[in-house]
Design brief:
Blueprint lengths: L4 E9 L5 H9 L17 E7 L2 E7 L9 H16 L2 E7 L6 H13 L5 E6 L6 H14 L4 E4 L8 H11 L17 H17 L7 E10 L5 E9 L2 H8 L4 H18 L3 E9 L7 H6 L9
Parallel strand pairs: 1-3, 1-4, 4-5, 5-6, 8-9
Antiparallel strand pairs: 2-3, 7-8
Length: 302
């Protein structure tokens, strides 16, 4: 019998580098929020991927950036925590942005931490630049840091992702699997449901309310008829924000609810009844309880 392998892989990089898209591509299901806004991944989301006899557990860290608020600081601490706990680190960068100051700062931090685990480089969004630009970027990056391996990928289209997954599987230590074979994420379903609704809010509201809201699943009821009732609270910081979320005649919240309900029904494989309520909570960014809901440590923001 072939020996099983299992281990943790941390995806790190600047905000919006494509970490969540890569995680979802690897796992084959949507477990991490994907939007075009930066800093949308707040918690370390673990997605589980099977490759032969290897179980790869991905830690999708929040994007690493220069923190300003408590929430920012807690997110960056969570990102580095995910990296130091992992067996392998994958640094994801965007091909068209190249070696930015942010990437240089991450590389400097990797050198300073001096971890034992191998670090692979994944250059993402390769369809946006010419081949010679890619090769030059790969050479410059490897001159900056001794990467164990370099991959050229498109997380969105799937190019190069199989090669990366196979290499990761081969590098993992021998050992029993951490999760059942059919489990794709270790986040509680209540938290995944909240993330789905938050994604729909972010997509719908664009620049109006970027990071000043959060979603909490208040109640979850699996009904005898095979459906699920989910009650969620959307916390905003000001009365004016509440009006934006609700929209004229409640049309915005209805559209968000419809989109979230459809995705949750598909994800759970059963009918979902979703009830959203908007509450003004001016100081939610300073409440320890909200951080726990997002899988972050409140103290890390100090």
């Amino acid at each position: 019998m072939t020996e099983t392998k299992a281990g943790f892989v941390a995806l790190i990089g600047e905000p919006n580098a494509g970490k969540s898209t890569l995680l979802n591509r690897m796992v084959g299901a949507k477990v991490s929020i994907v939007t075009h806004k930066v800093q949308t991944t707040r918690a370390r989301i673990r997605g589980v991927c099977m490759e032969g006899q290897a179980q790869i557990v991905f830690v999708d860290t929040p994007g690493i950036f220069r923190p300003r608020r408590r929430l920012d600081r807690a997110m960056v601490t969570a990102a580095w925590g995910g990296a130091s706990d992992a067996d392998i680190i994958v640094l994801l960068i965007e091909a068209h942005r190249g070696l930015t100051d942010g990437v240089k700062a991450i590389i400097a931090a990797l050198k300073e931490r001096g971890g034992e685990q191998p670090v692979a480089l994944a250059i993402n969004k390769i369809d946006r630049v010419k081949a010679e630009v890619l090769l030059d970027l790969a050479q410059r990056m490897n001159a900056e840091y001794p990467f164990a391996k370099t991959f050229m990928i498109s997380a969105e289209r799937g190019h190069g992702v199989d090669d990366l997954r196979e290499w990761l599987a081969g590098e993992l230590p021998n050992g029993p699997w951490f999760y059942p074979e059919d489990q794709i994420a270790d986040l509680p379903m209540r938290q995944i449901a909240a993330e789905v609704t938050r994604e729909k809010l972010t997509l719908r509201l664009h620049e109006e309310l970027p990071y000043q809201l959060t979603v909490e699943t208040e109640k979850w009821e699996d009904r005898p008829d095979g459906s699920t009732r989910i009650d969620q609270l959307i916390y905003v910081m000001r009365d004016g924000h509440k009006g934006i979320v609700l929209g004229k005649g409640g049309e915005t919240i209805k559209a968000i609810s419809t989109a979230a309900r459809a995705e949750l029904s598909e994800f759970l494989g059963r009918p979902v009844h979703l009830f959203l309520q908007v509450k003004v909570r001016p100081n939610w960014l300073e409440e320890a309880e909200r951080y726990s809901e997002m899988g972050l440590d409140f103290k890390d923001g100090d």
